[in-house]
Amino acid sequence: MNDLVVIDTNVLISALLSKHRDAATVRVLEAVFDGTIIPVFNDEILEEYSQVLRRPKFKFDNGVIELLLNVMKANGIFAERLITNERFPDPKDLVFYEVVMAKKEDNAYLVTGNGKHFPQKPFIVTPNELLAIIQ
After folding, report:
1. Residue 69, strand partner residues
2. Whose CA is closest to 65, among 16, 11, 10, 25?
3. Is the pLDDT of residue 1 over 60?
4. pLDDT for the residue numbered 120
5. Torsion over CA: 96, 88, 133, 49 (sign)
6. CA separation (Å) from 91 to 4, 35, 41, 88?
7. What CA dihedral angle connects 91, 93, 99 and 103, to 10 degrees?
8. Is the pLDDT reported for residue 110 higher than 90?
9. How far apart are CA 63 and CA 66, in angstroms?
10. Of 1 and 10, the one with more pLDDT
11. What is the tens place of the pLDDT at every residue in 36-94?
């Protein structure tokens, strides 16, 4: 079975900004496109992806953003939040944590480049750690 993964927005940004095809974030994104991992999301996460990726400072092509969002929706699964009452330094990170918690029984992971923003849990991993898990 393919691994279920909640992807923090910073991983997508890093992948799209990277000039290195072998960068861990790029390889995570490739794993979404080739079906190696199954993205898990809810409407709030998709909305954050859309809003953040469209920020003028990134200068991402709208067609690339639409393709990414469409692939995420087509290859992924929707999950409601599991309310945890956790507190986070950035409240916008809570949705990623609560969606992964909703799929914890399915051994889901949360991949992020900002591990310090989340509790230290074995299912919260960096892009490099995720790649080691899925190989």
Report:
1. none
2. 16
3. no
4. 92
5. positive
6. 23, 30, 17, 5
7. -130
8. yes
9. 5
10. 10
11. 999 999 999 999 999 999 999 999 999 999 999 999 999 999 999 999 988 898 889 99
Distance CA 99, CA 35 (A): 20
Mean pLDDT of 30-39: 96
Dihedral of CA atoms 1, 100, 38, 57 in degrees, nearest 10, equals -160
Task: Name the amino acid, one letter, at 124.
Answer: I
Can you tell me the distance from the alpha carbon of 65 to that of 2, in angstroms, rounded to the nearest whole number?
A: 24
Q: How far apart are CA 133 and CA 101, in angstroms?
A: 18
